[in-house]
Amino acid sequence: MKQAQINPKEIKQITSDLIKKIDAEAAVSVACEKDGVVNVDVKTRDPQILIGRNNETLQAIQHLLRVMARRISGGQCFIDLDVNEYRKKRNSYLKDLAVSSANDASLSKKEVSLPSMNAYERRIIHMALAERKDVATESRGYEEDRHIVIKPTS
User: Fold this and answer.
1) Total structural domains within the chain
2) What are the pLDDT digits (tens) for 80-134?
3) 148 vs 134: CA distance, rounded Å
4) Structure pTM?
5) What CATH number does the domain containing 34 carry?
6) Are the C-beta atoms of 111 and 117 separated by less than 8 Å?
7) C-alpha 32: how far from its chain's center?
8) Burial track 38-48 (b if 16+ CB lie within 10 A, e otherwise)
9) Range of the domain at 13
10) CATH, residue 127
11) Reduced to 3 states, what is the DSSP secondary structure of residue 122?
């Protein structure tokens, strides 16, 4: 699929239109990065409405925005949606969890199982530990029960 010509004004408009139907008081800002990713930040008084249980609503809105942006731009469009910096804080927490769990696995020489996570969050854990030689990561389980196990390598 070809890379889309991204117009930030159009992305902001479709995002604002969609978000305002859910939360009329939300403020939307859009920034395009050099690699073609469109960062969409939403500020609201009640973020849980847009985030949902286990981040499900946020992911669904991001998917809808990506589909809508693809239709408008005629090509591949990558949208990174965040609400009140939830995703940024969650990513930081996951990286910290990965490092501390890897340290535990390495020191105890025992596997450490993390809670169930969606694919996006599991990828953050895998990437955070990819350079470490003392541990390896593996996804186990199915669907909602899919989780990461961190194993010592020696």
Assistant:
1) 2
2) 999 999 999 999 999 999 999 999 999 999 999 999 998 889 999 999 999 999 9
3) 16
4) 0.81
5) 3.30.300.20
6) no
7) 17
8) bbbbbebeebe
9) 8-84
10) 3.30.1370.50
11) helix
